[in-house]
Amino acid sequence: MRERFVVEGLAGKKTLKGDLPVRGAKNAALKFLAASVLFEDELVFENVPDIEDVRRMGELLEKAGAQVITQGNTVRIVPPQKWQSSLDITIAKRMRASIVMTGPMLARVGEVSFPYPGGCVLGERPIDLFLSGFEALGATVEEQGEIFYVRAKGGRLQGAPIFFPFVSVGATETMMYAATLADGETILENAAMEPEIVAQAEMLNACGAHIKGMGTPTIHIEGTGGMPLRANGMTFTVVPDRLEAGSFLILATLAGEDVTIQHCEPNHLRALTELLEHAGVSLEIGTDTIRVRGEDAPLTSVSVRTHEYPGFPTDLQAPMAVFLTQCQGEATILETIYDGRFRYAEDLARTGADMTVMNPHRVLIRGPRKLTHAKLESPDIRAGLAYLIAAAIAEGTSTVDNAYLIDRGYERIEERLQAVGLSIRRESEQ
Ligand code: EPU
């Protein structure tokens, strides 16, 4: 049954009060789960967000033979004697992150087959870097119908230098995983530097991998020569979700009287906090908290350019667009990662936002504008949360259809927003 959120807008008043706790990062948890294929013993993860995408990744592991036991935010993975190396087609087609499991599977079993992965529609999302990376590590790639078959020669990957022509989070993670059990050294150049990648590399290193340089553009991996990793009873905690924290921060600046974002990692949010401060927002940044006390000082527009980490995250550009509707002046958002990520602009324009899509990579926003209620439908996970923010500051009652997409990325979002005083409820779509 399809569900939607109904939000009573605050009509621009800043009344939200209390704590907004941030959960573990979706994009770290999904990759931690995928990495479990590299292990020969049980793995336990804590602070795993209880969201749709994590459940799907758990199912993908179960289909491959693992036991996945979830208790609240703790997930235990018991590996099978023998992994089933064909990824489940239905699940893999629904979720882009499924492709990250191909690296560990190829490294561990010597072969993997998978369909072209699905996921949010954000423009073209090719997989060429994955295929050429596997070939560089000595595997063969064959495409039959909709399925890719990748086989390591002699069952084992060979370390190699890999230069990525552009930065890709998923390709960096997948090649890092694949190289972990290979023979010899792999050097990944122009690698992604996301904190989630650093967390993954640290986890692998604690269990027998030899990875250096994570968090920089050059990652060195000395393969274990086929030896699987061992957790030896250690548990691993998923890093806080910087995208959820960033969205909460934007909501708090626009609608908060006194809101504290909790359990976050402010250092991972510098690109956003710097821009908000330039726009005139005062933030009280603690070790793992950010407090925002509603002020009536006018906000000034700031232009945004999305960029790989540590630059401004593409996943925060839709929430940032809502922020800019409340700022004095004109600003542009330049989207450099995807070529189809302004589908939200038309919907937001119906709330009264003044937005002009100049081309597939640039949107112009003029503010401040009073937003009014509208019937909205999430086009992707991150824009879905941006719609909830727009609905929260608008005047009147808005609906945000397709709650499923928001649930893919955010754990029971309505409960946390209700706790700071937002009137939001979930109901069946009629
Ligand atoms: N790309 C290629 N060829 C490839 C791989 C990527 O052309 O083989 C392109 C993509 O089409 C895109 C760009 O490279 O234009 C960057 O994509 P990247 O591979 O970095 O993205 P991803 O790994 O598929 C992750 C996040 C996304 C986030 C991007 C960028 C996960 C599960 N997803 O995707 O998050 O937008 O990095 O930071 O980690 C989300 O969480 O809602 C989400 C979409």
Give an overview of the whole structure:
This protein is of the alpha+beta class. It is built from 14 helices and 23 strands. It has helices spanning 26-35, 52-63, 89-94, 102-109, 128-136, 169-180, 195-206, 242-255, 270-278, 317-324, 344-349, 381-393, 403-409, 413-419; strands at 3-8, 16-21, 43-46, 67-71, 74-78, 111-115, 139-144, 147-152, 161-163, 185-189, 210-212, 218-222, 235-237, 256-262, 284-285, 289-293, 304-305, 329-334, 354-359, 362-367, 375-377, 397-401, 423-428. The protein has a 4-stranded mixed β-sheet, covered by helices on one side. A hairpin with a 2-residue loop joins strand 19 and strand 20 (362-367). Uridine-diphosphate-2(N-acetylglucosaminyl) butyric acid binds at residues 26-27, 30, 96-97, 120, 124-130, 168-171, 314-315, 337-338, 381-382, 409.
Q: What's a quick, concise take on this entry?
A:
The protein has 14 helices and 23 strands.
What labels would you give this structure?
430 residues, binds uridine-diphosphate-2(N-acetylglucosaminyl) butyric acid, alpha+beta, 31% helix
